[in-house]
Amino acid sequence: MESSQDQPGSGKANEQSEQVSGVLAESHPGQVLVSAPGDAPVPIPQDQAPLDVDVGAETDSAYGDDFSSYSTSVTSSIRSYKYENGRRYHAYLEGQYSLPNDEEEQDRMDLLHHIFKLITGGELALAPIGETPGRVLDFGTGTGIWAMDKGSANSLISFADMYPTAEVIGTDISPIQPTWVPNNCKFVIDDVEADWVYPSGEKFDYIHGRGMAGSIGDWGKLYKQCLDNLKPGGYLEMQEYECWLRADDDSLDRARWVSEWLQTLDEASIKFGKRLNVSHMHGQWIKEAGFEAVEDRVFRVSNTMTLLLITCLPYLQVPVGSWPKDKGLKEVGRFEQLQMLDAADSFTLALYTRVLGKSIEETKTFIEGVKREFKDPSVHLYSFFHFVIARKPME
Length: 395
Description:
- By secondary structure, the protein is α/β, with parallel strands linked by helices.
- It has helices at residues 76-79, 103-119, 145-148, 159-162, 219-228, 251-254, 256-272, 282-289, 327-355, 360-374, and strands at residues 22-24, 82-84, 87-89, 135-139, 167-172, 185-189, 204-210, 230-241, 292-297, 299-304, 307-312, 317-319, 382-391.
- The strands form 3 sheets. Strands 4, 5, 6, 7, 8, 9, 12 and 13 form an 8-stranded mixed sheet that branches. A 3-stranded mixed sheet has the order 1-11-10, with helices on one face. The chain has a two-stranded antiparallel ribbon with strand order 2-3.
- Strand 2 (82-84) and strand 3 form a beta hairpin.
- The longest helix has 29 residues, at 327-355.
């Protein structure tokens, strides 16, 4: 019989890889809704084939035993970080964001950036922004890697360098961006949830956000401010992962730690006022804000003749681990497993201890149970990623 410590809720590198080239297929228009806890579940379409499992992979695991001038003055209070449960958190607007901002979390964010690029074949922007986008905003920029990282799979220049006539601005509440940046790129300490105060003559051509789950309390207000601060015909792009996991077999029934983790995290984030599992709602919120031509673009990764292809299917399934037979999915899954192992700490510590009132000992025991199941090659979990693109109407 299992001890109480082996049951959920009992109380008790960023590696580098060669960049994978890819091509984008024609987009799939229309919002895609998937199930979320507390919502009526949306069934997977009948033609959605289960992912094939690589039986040989079950003996292996991918997890073995990576300022420019600020518009606001960087005061000592901004850098007086809060330390809690062995992790570092932001000081500016303390308590409004539940994830840490230390080096460990920065490595996880950069790894997630790499996963997004594997999914899109190296592309940073899927919206049709053209060759001269003008003013570009990346809200919630984090480490600034999107604004500064290499662009398409065949490019050796940063996003800002790719568009030398553009003014690229990244905003965040944490000053964790690099010092040396291209001349046309700058980072601003700013709260994206506050009222935006950009002058009317400084509207944007393209606004980008990514991985903001659990960061926003009023998405309707955010998207209305995006609309108001875009030029007519300008584009908004939201790239988001679903904070929920699925399986085509009985993996979730067997992964009891993960199953309870998903439920309690969602409950804690709702209580915190910034729900995590909202990726399926962005399309509707963006439409309600007044955007047109709203598309929830989703892709499935497959491997054909050694070329990673991004093809348009009803859902994009991103596996946790190297268990799929498909070589493209196996590649993405290795990195996603590493990212999820780090995310187990980042997403859980503050929500469990601050919001749910759990002890740090109980929380760490729970996290270790979740990690064990993430590393179990017989557990075949995956999640969905969304790329929502919309245009501001011409006035």
